[in-house]
Structure formats: structure tokens, C-alpha cells
Specification:
The protein is α+β, with helices and mostly antiparallel strands and 242 residues long. The chain has 7 helices and 7 strands, in the order αβαββαββαβααβα. A 5-stranded mixed sheet has the order 4-5-7-3-6. Strands 1-2 form a two-stranded antiparallel ribbon. Helix 5 runs antiparallel to helix 6. The radius of gyration is 36 Å and the shape is rod-shaped.
Length: 242
């Protein structure tokens, strides 16, 4: 009897010592049955079935806001670019549009406009800047959130009206009333189709961003002009007063 009691006490003490030796890297939690079975299959003691390693990985820094990531912001940029070969810049911009999943909007001797996927907009702008000397650069953003939400609310109201009119038509026994209701229903469906089309246009608008490049041909100085330019600059340095 005494031997059995001592044996039980020794087992309990060893269990307390084992569970008390856990390091701070472990935190107790409720284990799912599948996890308990996995621990059992791994041959872990019963006391370790409810322990899991606490991650020590550092917290990720908060993501910096970028208008490119906003699904309801439409972006556009305007570049004034000096170049010796306008034709080459135009061709390069067309290629750039294809490389960024976009397309050519228009091209004239004075400017070329392309559209690219909004997610790759800043990448496309950086690539366009390398095509010549940047004389000016402007980037614009416009929120389409209010317009989109207004269209969504209008669609909801029109769909509710369509359902109501359809129910009234089914219940009506008067030919004149049914004719009037059907006319109203036709107007609602036309209006609903127009609003959905406008909302689709907003979705397409925010999916792409517009890049317009105003290409200016560089004027190269002739030998006579270069001589006078150098002479004028030399005179300015000569008469500089400290």
C-alpha cells in the first residue's frame, strides 16, 4: 500500500517538474482533436499536447498608402519630354503600352497618350521618363468612389422598382392598368441598363491610367550659333563681380 502511494507521488512530482520546465517560448492553447492526434502520433507526452510555439517574428511595418492601390482612384500623368527623335519616342511609347497591358489612346506630332493598367502606372511613368529629357512632370488623381456608390444605389432602387412592377402586372386584372404598368416597367429596364453601362464605364476607367507625353524636338545649335553662345557665356563669366 505504502509502495503504491509513494509510486503515485513520484509520478505526480515528475509530471509537475516536467510541466514547470516549459520555456517562455511556449503558450498554452486549446488543441483541436486533429492536432491532439498529431501530437500523439509524434510520441509527445500528454502534457505537451496543449503547447504550441509562439512566433518570435518581428511585426511587419504598416503598408505605405499609394493611390495606385486604391480601387476607386483614377490616375493620369503628363510629361513634357525633350527628344531629338520624336518618331522613335512615339514608337517606344506604343511598345511601352503593350508591355504594361495597355493600349495606344492617340498620337500626334505634338503628343502621344497611352493607357496602362493602373497597378503598373508608376512603372510606366518611370520608363517613359527614360525616353528623353524630362522638362515637366505632373500626376493627377481623381476619386470615383462617390460616383460609383451613387450608381450602385440607383441600380438597387431600379431593381426594386422592377420587381414591384412585375408583381403588380401579374396581379392586375385590368388591361389598361396592365398596359400602363408594362410601359413603366419598360422605362425602368431601359434606365437600369443605362446606369449599369455607366457603372461599367467607371470600372474600366479606374482599371486603367492615362499617360500623356508632350514630345518636344530638341533644337541643335549650328557652328555659328555655338560660337556666339560660347562667347556670350564667356563674357558673362568675365564680368562677374564678386
Amino acid at each position: 500500500m505504502l509502495k503504491s502511494l509513494l509510486a503515485a507521488t513520484a509520478v505526480a512530482a515528475s509530471g509537475i517538474l516536467f510541466t514547470g520546465c516549459g520555456t517562455p517560448q511556449y503558450a498554452a492553447r486549446a488543441a483541436a482533436p486533429a492536432e491532439m492526434e498529431a501530437h500523439a502520433d509524434a510520441g509527445l507526452p500528454d502534457g505537451d499536447r496543449y503547447l504550441t510555439a509562439a512566433p518570435d517574428a518581428p511585426k511587419a511595418a504598416p503598408k505605405r498608402y499609394s493611390p495606385v492601390d486604391d480601387p476607386m482612384i483614377t490616375l493620369s500623368a503628363s510629361l513634357d519630354l525633350g527628344t531629338a527623335d520624336v518618331g522613335k519616342v512615339q514608337l517606344d511609347l506604343m511598345t511601352l503600352a503593350k508591355q504594361h497591358n495597355g493600349y495606344l489612346l492617340n498620337s500626334t506630332p505634338e503628343e502621344t497618350s497611352i493607357r496602362v493598367e493602373q497597378g503598373r502606372f508608376m512603372e510606366a511613368v518611370a520608363a517613359a521618363e527614360k525616353l528623353g529629357k524630362v522638362l515637366d512632370k505632373r500626376i493627377y488623381g481623381r476619386s470615383m468612389e462617390e460616383q460609383f456608390q451613387g450608381q450602385a444605389e440607383m441600380i438597387r432602387l431600379l431593381e426594386e422598382t422592377r420587381t414591384r412592377l412585375s408583381n403588380e402586372i401579374r396581379k392586375s386584372d385590368s388591361p389598361n392598368e396592365r398596359q400602363n404598368l408594362e410601359r413603366q416597367l419598360q422605362e425602368v429596364e431601359q434606365r437600369l441598363l443605362a446606369v449599369k453601362g455607366a457603372q461599367g464605364g467607371v470600372k474600366r476607367q479606374v482599371h486603367y491610367a492615362t499617360l500623356t507625353v508632350n514630345h518636344h524636338k530638341k533644337q541643335l545649335m549650328g557652328p555659328v550659333t555655338a560660337v556666339f553662345w560660347a562667347a556670350g557665356k564667356g563674357l558673362r563669366w568675365l564680368f562677374v563681380i564678386d
